[in-house]
Structure formats: structure tokens, C-alpha cells
Amino acid sequence: MALPTPSTTTAAALYTRYRAVRQATMQLVSPLSPEDLMVQSCPEASPVKWHLAHTSWFFETFVLSEFLAGYRPFHPDFRWLFNSYYNSLGEMPEKKLRSSFSRPPLEAIFAYRAHVDGAIESLLQHPAGDEAARRIVLGLEHEQQHQELIATDIKHAFFTNPLHPAYRGPAFAKPEALIAPPLEWVDFSAGLVEIGVTPSPNSIDAFAFDNETPRHRVYLEPFRLATRLVTCAEYLAFIDQNGYNRPELWLAEGWSIIRSESWQAPLYWRRDEATNSGWSIFTLHGFQSLDDLSETPVCHLSFFEADAYARWAGFRLASEFEWEHAATTAPPTKANMLETGALHPTPAHALSGLQQIYGDVWEWTASAYTGYPGYKPLPGALGEYNGKFMSSQMVLRGGSCVTPATHIRATYRNFFSPATRWQFSGLRLAQDAPR
Amino acid sequence: MALPTPSTTTAAALYTRYRAVRQATMQLVSPLSPEDLMVQSCPEASPVKWHLAHTSWFFETFVLSEFLAGYRPFHPDFRWLFNSYYNSLGEMPEKKLRSSFSRPPLEAIFAYRAHVDGAIESLLQHPAGDEAARRIVLGLEHEQQHQELIATDIKHAFFTNPLHPAYRGPAFAKPEALIAPPLEWVDFSAGLVEIGVTPSPNSIDAFAFDNETPRHRVYLEPFRLATRLVTCAEYLAFIDQNGYNRPELWLAEGWSIIRSESWQAPLYWRRDEATNSGWSIFTLHGFQSLDDLSETPVCHLSFFEADAYARWAGFRLASEFEWEHAATTAPPTKANMLETGALHPTPAHALSGLQQIYGDVWEWTASAYTGYPGYKPLPGALGEYNGKFMSSQMVLRGGSCVTPATHIRATYRNFFSPATRWQFSGLRLAQDAPR
Amino acid sequence: MALPTPSTTTAAALYTRYRAVRQATMQLVSPLSPEDLMVQSCPEASPVKWHLAHTSWFFETFVLSEFLAGYRPFHPDFRWLFNSYYNSLGEMPEKKLRSSFSRPPLEAIFAYRAHVDGAIESLLQHPAGDEAARRIVLGLEHEQQHQELIATDIKHAFFTNPLHPAYRGPAFAKPEALIAPPLEWVDFSAGLVEIGVTPSPNSIDAFAFDNETPRHRVYLEPFRLATRLVTCAEYLAFIDQNGYNRPELWLAEGWSIIRSESWQAPLYWRRDEATNSGWSIFTLHGFQSLDDLSETPVCHLSFFEADAYARWAGFRLASEFEWEHAATTAPPTKANMLETGALHPTPAHALSGLQQIYGDVWEWTASAYTGYPGYKPLPGALGEYNGKFMSSQMVLRGGSCVTPATHIRATYRNFFSPATRWQFSGLRLAQDAPR
Amino acid sequence: MALPTPSTTTAAALYTRYRAVRQATMQLVSPLSPEDLMVQSCPEASPVKWHLAHTSWFFETFVLSEFLAGYRPFHPDFRWLFNSYYNSLGEMPEKKLRSSFSRPPLEAIFAYRAHVDGAIESLLQHPAGDEAARRIVLGLEHEQQHQELIATDIKHAFFTNPLHPAYRGPAFAKPEALIAPPLEWVDFSAGLVEIGVTPSPNSIDAFAFDNETPRHRVYLEPFRLATRLVTCAEYLAFIDQNGYNRPELWLAEGWSIIRSESWQAPLYWRRDEATNSGWSIFTLHGFQSLDDLSETPVCHLSFFEADAYARWAGFRLASEFEWEHAATTAPPTKANMLETGALHPTPAHALSGLQQIYGDVWEWTASAYTGYPGYKPLPGALGEYNGKFMSSQMVLRGGSCVTPATHIRATYRNFFSPATRWQFSGLRLAQDAPR
Hints:
homotetramer; 4-stranded mixed sheet; 3-stranded antiparallel sheet; 9 helices
């Protein structure tokens, strides 16, 4: 596992980590107004205000109500109001109604967060039991997932706003020196490899979601993986060579979607005659010319676009097993993740060997999201966290430029419907090696 | 015409009226938070924030830009951003995108209002020309329409919110003394009557929308009109006698809608076992027991429900011509309109003769909304105000409890699609009289 | 009334008429295969096979079951299977399921028709009572309506078939001599006129649907009506001058539909570079060049297109009352109706005065379809025939080239949703006359 | 591979097989009328008439046009008219339009079949080249797939028809003696197994679709497979214990579908108070009481229902690799496939060991349908046959009671969207074995 997880073996250390994660959330929303926090601009997204409440709800529901004696919930209605999708806990509002949550007011949500924070502090005054600690860690990983969602949802909200405001000040200057190095290949030989994580009931240091378990063997044929991600310039060639209009390049489902949705480019690309490339791209810094972003990894692709690009290029996507096997051998590199503040993918470095494994963009894999052999969801309502989504979705690996660095690892499995584009999702090429 | 229009023949008087209407809007939104102003809970509604901007846009576009020399628009983007549906003025954002307008921030909208108010004040320092004055009056009538929409849209927003907050403090006490008097009939004889308004190009006192013109003759057969509106108690009998499940009572289009939408009661009615009647009703004061509202006029009916009720009761709806003819003869009564602060229909008084002609609820008529013989829309973009909606809509008459009192008159024609329920819409019974 | 209705005062005469109408239906379907009779190509249409059965069902249900002692229904399931929309008679299959009615086989449907025909013959061996006779006449008018629907539905079915087969042999030769005469105007003065029909309970000669009753007075302002229908050549000028892309010409609802449906021409028009005009039109004789049809009345327009054309031309549509008043004064002309076999509109004649009042195309009026003052639907299930459709539809007048000649009259009210185009629907221009 | 493929190494043998398959298709449609062949009752289905034409089109396009010198296509329009989804060959009609193909008439389709049959006969007068022979075999396998679709599509068509006719005479008598034996388990140990087929370019005997290639290694953990399929009686217990209303049993996507579609039982099950079980089931023999079918394998399940049932029962579905590995070891048993004429699943036999591997119902697996490592689609348009559907679908194995016996094998991969129910699809239970 390439990225270290901070030690949380003691209650104090755990509380330190708790405060860091919670504050990171507040930091992330600090540029936003109460009105910004209300916007829900597509079915995939939620208002940021809801994310602030729901992440607190998670600690209240799965930690405080169970492990803090005498805990008094902040408000009885919040129990159902901010439930996302845990049917085992009872009824909840339809997702699309979240945009109507002008009440409770934002101050109440902030008070809710403070209330929960205080209670967690109380709980961690003394060594919490293993299960409580594990739940807190789970809550922190959960909150980090919502940090990423806050970034992607507000990006979509600002793109939907006809004025296209920027989340953060003027765009960074064009990184002129950075030219993505030529795409090269790293070879991996055939063999049985171990994939996933053995559940470790007594450890909170080595966190993993249930969908990463159990560790099991997979046989891999020999394969090659590209050293870096596909860039905007490379993807533009696919567009310019009519890639969106050649059915033989597309899965049937993808072809149907690009026809019905009239997709001719990634999400957030807009024709712009004022640029050399003919395109501008909406970023969290507002619209920027593709001229300045051509060496950055292409993102906001659906699986279908990633797959079609790979076919057009004469290659394919990696399976999630190939990816994980390669990632465990990858040397650590300075990853562009949420903490860099770039908030957008950045060009690969002039290095040899695998890079951009973590950060920049989630990499679509060729693997459908299903349970590993022997997979058991967590008991109780938490079993709904991951397991019930194991149909009609594809696995993505590696995190993005808005994923917190401490949240990602080689075994991490993200998953979305193959038509999803509002995440920072891109691709790395793979190919079969001669057997 | 039962209600007087305040004199606005001088610039000073016009400015006085301008300030009163504009302040009434601000008064109306004063209980609401910036977050409340963002909610758009159904396709018919807009965020209140948008209403605040659009009403100012109307003055800027149709008055200041044309009649105030040297006027500088508040912001160039606002010209298209807050256009509602005037295609002649160019492109505009789709209606559903209004919920994404977190920017410009609310303070900018308030500044926009102040900017426009100051410019109107400048314009009215000196006598404005007739056309400018007429446009200002049109803008005020327009703003009053949006005052009503603010009330209805925020009611729907708060109903959609799973917490069902109230717009205004605790509900008024049960009006125990008020029992609706028995429904009686007023007779009208046959004959040619005059309907509508003659356009009066040089007057600003007698405002009318273009769809009320020209005055023309209509032949009426003898008819009878009920003295008061239909009450909740009366409508409950229709529900209890299975009215929503008897196809013979319904127009085919209405039957199809109540099946597909599973309507079994007016909008805002909810089963409530804690009440004697078995129902509670959501109001701008929150949910209230139907027990306390049974004598109030039923509202939030679609045309189809009003029509089905009338058929079930053995009567019919009035045509808009019958209604207008009757209204011109109706003695003025104390109408329950926006200024009373009731914000909900109130029971009829123990009086004889026609009452509740104005206020309480808009009365669905049996008339489709089409142009009068010889109808000409206003010239230019303002011609889109009313005329282009003359298909597939029904006329409503008389204003509601959230219509400003100075906005309504006997000739006023409101119009909505027959399935619309989010307005305060109810009915008065009519019947043929023997010829 | 311009067209005479054949005398049916005696049972024998009535049976003669019955046989003629029923045979006309069979004649109409004679060019069609059992497979053709199965096609249902749009929600408005039904399979022709269904029409054959349903028209027989009407006689069985409303005549034979009530008036022929000892009548044995052909098959108990047919009672509900071939009910169209009479809720009072119980449940019925959804309309869209009619395309699954491969069973009962066509032979059974023919046997059903023969069974009903035999029973009607028995019933009319002796003088039938007045009500039975009236019901038979109603059934014949009903069957004539379905004759028109058979023609329009099979036209749509053949257009939907990618091979675009023709219903009838090679297209008629280009009527070179026929050039539509210049459009002129006929003036009508203001006044109270009588509209509609007095129900005549004891007569079967002067049939009228309930929606044509009662006869009542309407005041008309002075108006002018065009002498002939609008031609394809005239409509092409509207297209060529960008009529489909100028929002100011359209009702808002119409504009929305032409955008979402991408309408740029009437239904059945197809771009065709092989023609001078650039268009071909699908007819019951297959595709024909617009070059050969330019002087024929334009048809397959929605109300919105008819209305927009009239506005573009500087005129308007007539109200249904203006039309009816004019039609009663129109001299009889040789109308192009179903019996001519043209099966498509033909050019106006070189005559002065009103023509094409009957036949060629249904004329959209400016009138919404509502009940006349004092309107009472027929009692019982037959009350569902017309009355329940009185919302969100517009009135059309005058019949078309596929309307049987004996079916139409000055007071006849056809009605469709304003977006409907699969009928032979076009327009005649009208305008206000100086008062 | 458990089932032998008839030898087709010589042209004569190949022609014999060709005739047998083509005649089997004609035999299958012999109980149907021309009208029956027109019905298309759901988006998944096609009219049987279309199947008759399309299977001929396949031979014409991929065999005759390429390999028979001087071949003259039957009709130039058929080239595009009966193309299903091969974009490489040009435009084709939308699938939903197939129900409008009343022309060409059925006789023309039969003539088309005869024309193609004659040309194949000519081609096979002499030894055809290897590729031609392989294409003919592919065409026969293709036609066998459409034989299954004819059976499933006509079943749905007859179920949609409100009269619910039977495809074949009276239902078979209740198989009283047949009681499904107790469900037992067969153990399989862990290890690397070989899955799939090595492409064998020079052989036509060992046919496999491209999606079954290449043969590759998969590591299996130890597992157990149920000896027989799940029965209706067992599934009824799941229904009776509220299985359709317990969200914790369902994948989120499945839960959403059963809510929106109101599914409470498999497709074709209908409440029937006249039976002991309370249910009847529609079969190709018409409706039959579940009382008589309780020991037969449950079918017409979606993947979601199969998955939920397995979870409820405490087990899981097998992966397609577990299934294939087990199937290769299964002793051949008398399979209930198309040739038995049962046309419905039949009870398991009183035998020990794996049975019902082939026939009865397609078995949903836990495996998403993706390409095997190293998978290459066929070159050219035939590459669209299988490969482009590799997203959002699940693999089914083993064939059904309407699959031709010579069409199935251990490596065969069927695939459908997880919500699909109109196929004869059911399940076999699996579980992890202790490691």
C-alpha cells in the first residue's frame, strides 16, 4: 500500500485525526455562500449543505448513538432527514428533495456539526472500544468521500449556473514547463496474484472498506500498463478524428447514450473559437482554454468514452486486478490530490516508470463492480454501505485531484454507473503482452 | 369594477404607488432566509430570489432602458439572465436552471432592486411621458402578480421540505363564530352584455392587461350564480362519496391525471388520524386540522376537480362572461386578500347576496383562455406578456387571499393549465336558469 | 345544412342506409392484408382490425343488447375487449394493447360483423321504435367516423413502414389545369346569430351529435372569411421565410412542441432534392412530389402550425361560430370527400365565393372545444361519447377528403388536441372587418 | 463439452444440418397466423415475422453475398430493412418500427427464405471453403438463437393479448409422479481452472461464439453448487415471507425497479383465488395453476429476483466460472430443451448429483458480462455480434426449455440486462465452501 495511514491507535491520535478531517471539510466549503450550499444541479449530486449534515449524521447514527452512553441526538428529525440510503434504519426523504432543505437553516447544520464534534471529543476522552474506534475511522473515510463529492457537486453547480462562477480565484498560470512525457509501457508477467484485503478485526490502522475484502487469488495473463494517464491533447485527436461518430468504436450502450445525449466531447468541454484548440474547459477556477490544459490528463469521461478511446488507440482498459497488482509495485510519487490545491489534474512528470497512479483522475477499469469471492458485507445497516450497489457499475481506481491523500490506497475500489461523467474520471491505457 | 385603483396621474403619485408596491414585495420576503429564496420545488414555481430579480429586470428592460436618458444597466448579464420568456429579447436560461442561481448573491439582487428604484425615482422627478407612465404601471401590476407567485411558490417549497416549516408564526385561532351561510342563488337574465375593457391609450388610471381588451358584446342565456364559494366541508362530502373514483364525474383528461398522479384530495391535504375529519391541510401557517378549516373555501383544486365537483353537485362552473357580468353588479364586500394577512381563505360572512367575488380563491371558470374578438397583443416584446399563452388553459377570475387588493378587478383574466393546483384556486357553483 | 341526409324514416330505408355504410367500411379495407390491419403506428391510431370490431361492438352494445329481444352476443369477451372508452360499461384494455390483438383472428372479426349485420336486419324487419332507430343512426355516424380513422390510421401506418407502401395504386396524374384561384374575402356583418342544433327527440332524419346542441344565440362582430383553403404553395412560403424558427409567430405551447419535436414542415413532408420544390409529400398513393401538389390545400397541420401561419400572413383563424354562420350561407359545391376516391385534398375551383367549405381538409378554428350553453350529454354510457373530451382541445370544421359525404354538416364539431397532425387538417384564413 | 455437435465437416453434412435447422424454425411458427407474426409486445421482443426474415438476411449478408459467385439478393431493400444492429453495414430501421412491417407481406418473407435456402443449396453443391462453412455454421447458431426468441416473444405477445391465447393445445397433464428431489450440494475444490474455448480457425465442428474465447486460466476458491434448480414452491416461500418488501434482500438497483414496476412475483404469475396456491402462471399452453407447477423450476426471474432469493435463502449465485467448471464435470442427463416439446421447465429427476445443467431455465450467474482476457471480436461487421454488448449485462448459463439442444454447451455465455424477465431465466444456488 503506497500511502501511509496516520496512526490512530490511541484515542488521542484518533481524535487528532478526527479534528483534521472535520476541519478539512469546513475549509473546503469556506469559499461558498449559504446560497451556493443549496444548489443540487443533477441527479447524481446533493446540495453541499446536505453533505455537511449527512456526514455528521453518520457519526451520530453509527458511533454516538451506539457507543456514547447518554448521548442525546441533536434533533430527533435529523435521524431520518439526513439518512442517505440506509433502508434498514427506516424511511428517508427522496434524494431529489434535498434541494428543498432551506430549513433547517445553515446555522443549525453548523450547530449540528459542533454538537457531534463535542460528543466525539467526549467519547475519545477515554479509550474507546475497538468497534467504536473502527466506526470512527469509517466515519472519517466516509467524510473524506463526501469531501470529494462536495468538490464535484459544486463544480457541477457552478457549471450549471449560466454565469459559470469559479470556486476559487483566478486560474493557475499555464504550466509551460510541464509537457507530458511520451507514453511508455511497463510490463507485468503472468501469474497468480493476491488482490484485496484480509479483514483485520482488531486493527484500525489498516482501514479498508468491506468491498476490498477478502484478500483472494486472481490469475493474471501477462499485460502492459501505460506509464501515465491519457492527456487532453491525445483525447482531442480522438475527437478530431471523428471518434464520437464512429459506432464501431463504441459499446452499444455507450453509442446509444452519446446519440441521445448528443455528446461530442467530455463533460465541461465547450466549443470556444477564441482558442487555438477550439475548446475551453470548465474547471473549479472557471473556464480555461484547452490550449493551457492540453498536457493535463483528460477527465470527466464516462466509462464508455474511456473504453472507446482505448479501442480507437488500439489498446484497452486494465482490469481492476491488473491495476491493483501494478499499483502495489509502483514507486510512491508526489500525487496531485485534494491537498495540493490544484483542484484539477496536472501533467505527468518527466519521469520514467508508472506515475499518476494516485490522484489526478480516477481511472476507469474494464471490471464490473461485483463482490470478491467470499465477500461479506458489514453486519447491520452498515452492510448497505457498499454491497447493495454491486450491479451495473464499473470499478475506478486510484483517486483524483479532489480525493484526500489519506483516503486512497492500492486496494481501494470506487464504482459508478458507466455513463457517469461528473466525477474527475479519466483513463490509463493497457494492452495484452505476448503470452 | 368593484375595487378602486389609486390615482397615479401625476409623477409624484405614481412614484408613491411604485414605492408602496416595491416595499410590499420586500415585506413579503422578510420572513425568509437566503436559503429559502433558493428553493424551486416544482416546474411551475421559481425561486423567490429569482422573482426579486425578475421584477426589477422588468422595470429595467421595459421602462428605464427606453425612457430614462443615460440609464446604465445594473449589470450587462442581467439583461438575459432574468428574462423569463420574452423570446423577442433574445436567449434566456431554461426555467429549471433558476434553482442554480446561487450567484449573483442575494446582496447583489437587493442592490439591483435599489439601483432600479433609484433610477425610477430619477425618472419620476419630472413628469414622465404617457407611455413611460403606462409602462411603470404595467411593471407594478407585473410585480403584484409576482407577489402572489412568491406566496404560492414558497408555500409549495415549504410543503416539499419534509419538515414542513411555516411561513408565518402560529396558525390563527379557529374562527369559531364563522360558519359559512347556506349556499343560495342569484339570478341573472338573458341578454347581450358588454365584456372586457376598451383600450384607453391616454389613461393610466384604468389599467387593464391586453387580454382584457377589447370591450365587446356577448350574449348570455339566463343563469344563476351561487352566493358564495364551495367550502372544504362541502368538498369533503364529494371525497367521502367516492368522487375521486367515479369516472362518470370527470373529464377524460382529468380522469387520466387523477389516475396517473393518484390524486384523492386537493393539493396540500394529508390524511391525519389525529383529527375528527381525518385530514389536515398545509397552509402558510403550517399544517392545520381540517376540523378548523371546514367552513373555509376549498382551494388548491385543479380545474378538473372543480369541474367534477360541480357535476357531482348537479351544477356547473360559470363561464367567464357570466362571472364578469355578475361581478360588475356585485356590491363591494370586505375581501380577504393579501393585505389582510390571513394568507388563507376565510369563511363567507352571514350576508345575503353575492360575496367572496374578490379574494379568498381564484374561481375556475368553464371558459378556455382565448383572445377576445378583435384582440391585439401589445406591440413589441410586451406582446408576449399574455397573448402567446392562449391555448390549453382555462380562465380563473376574482383573485385570491394572496392577491394584492389593488391588483384585481371584474375584468381581470387569470389563466392556468387545467391540471394546475399550486395556486389558491377553488370554485363557485353556477347553473342554467329556465329560459 | 348544405348536404342532405338520406331519408331513414322507415325501417326499410334505415336498413338500406345501414347496409350502405357497413359495406363502405368493407370496401375501404379491401386493399389491405390481414397484416396491414394489425399495425398501430402512433398513440392516436388503432389497428384497422380493431376499428372493424369496435364499430360492430357499438351496434351490439347500444342497439342489439337493448332493443332486439333475445339477442345473443357474438362472444361474451367482445363486450369488454372492443370497448373503446366507455367507463360506465366497465373495464377495457388499454388502447396501446390493441396492437396485440392477433386473436381473435380476422375471420372472427368478419364473422362478428356478419352476426351483427344479421341481427340488425332482423331488428329492422319490423318498425323499430324511435330510440332504436336513433341509436342505429348514431351507430352509422359512429361507423363513418371510424371510416375516416381507418384512412388516417392506415396512412400513418404505411408512412411508418420504412418501405412507405401506397394504399392505392399509382398516384393520380398531375392536375395541370387546376390552379387555385386567387384568395379573396367574403364579408359578414355583425349580429346575433343562431348556432348549433335543437335536439329533436322524435326525428332520425336530422341527426346531430349531442355536442352540437342546444341551438343558442351568439353575437358576432363583423368578419371576413377567405374564399378557399390555404395551399401548399402558400404554406411553403411560410416555411421558406423561416416561419418555423421565429418564436414571435407561435403560441408558447406550439413553440415548445416544434422545438422538442424538431418540426420544420407539416407531417408527411420530406425533403427531396429530386424535386423542384425540394419536398415530397406522403399520400395514400405513396410519396408524390410537392411540385405536383402545390395548388392543393395544405394538410396534416397541427393547430399551432395553422395559427402561426395565419399570424405570419397577417390574418387569423375563424371562430367556430363565424365558420358555422358562414357555412350555412355557402352555396353547395362539389365537395372532395371520401366518395370521390381522390383520398387527398384537391385544388380549389376557378369560382368566386366561398368554396371548399366541406371536404378536402378539416379547418382548425380559433375555438376551444367546450359545451354550448345549456349543453346536456346523452343519458347513460352514451354521454361519454363527446362530453368528456371538452378540455384542452380545439374545434375543427367542415370535414376532409376522407370524410364520408353524408356524415358532414354545417353544425358538425370535430375536436382534437392542438398538437394533433395525423388527421387531414388544414386552414382557411379569416380577419376582422371594420366595425 | 457435454453435448455433441453433429458432424458438419462435409458440404453435404452441412447442408443436412442447414435444412434441419431451417425447417425447425418453420415448424416452430406453424401454429401461428400471419396476424400473430405481426405482434411486438415489448421493447425486448420482435415480431416473429421479422425473425423469419432477419435469420435469412443473416445468411444472405454474411454467406451468400460473400461466398456465392453471382448471387443475386432477393430484394435490394432487404439489405437494410432486416439488419438488426450491425452499424458497420449502414443504417437500419429503429427496432420499435418492426411492428409496422405489414409489408413486405408474409408470402414475400417465405419466398425470401426459399430463395436463400436455394442459394445455400447451390453453394453446398460443392465443397465450400472453410470460411464459408464457418459462416454457415454461425448462421445456424444464429438461427437457433432466434428460435428461442420466437418462443419467448410469442409467449409475451400472447400474454399481452387480453384473451391470453395458448401457443399450443391444452396444457400437459399434471406430472404427479414428479416431485423435485431434496436440494443437495456438490463440492468443488479450489484451484486454477481453464475457462472458455481456444479459437480453432480451421474447424467447423467445434463451434463457439467469439465471446467464449480465448481459453484462459481462472483461480476458483472452493465452492458448492446445488444439485438442481430452485422450484416454484421454494420461490413461493420467498414471496410468502415478504421477500419482495424487504429492502435488505435486494441490490439497490433491483429494489428501485421492483418499487417502480410494482413487481411482487415473477413475470407471468397472476393472483388466482381459484387455486390452492393462490397463483396461476401463464405458459405457452395458456394459464395453468401453480398447484400443478410447484415442483417445476421457477422461471421468468430477473437477475435481481434471483439474487434476492439466493440472499434470502442464505446462499448466493455461482460465478460463471464456477458454473462452467462444474458443468464440464456434469454427467449428461436427459435435458428438457426445445425438442422435448414441453415448452416449459419440468421437475428435476429423482437422481443424485448435478442435474438440470442444460435446459429448463437459463441460470443467472453472479458474473457481469465482459470480455475474457485477450478477447478479440470477429473481424468486420460480425465483430458487432457479441462484443459491443459487454456492459451492464449479466451472464446466464445452460440454456432453457426453448433452447435447441444442439445449440448449447458448457462454455456458452448468454447475457441480458439484470432487469430482464421475458426469457426463461431462473437460478441454481451456490455457496462458499470452507477454505
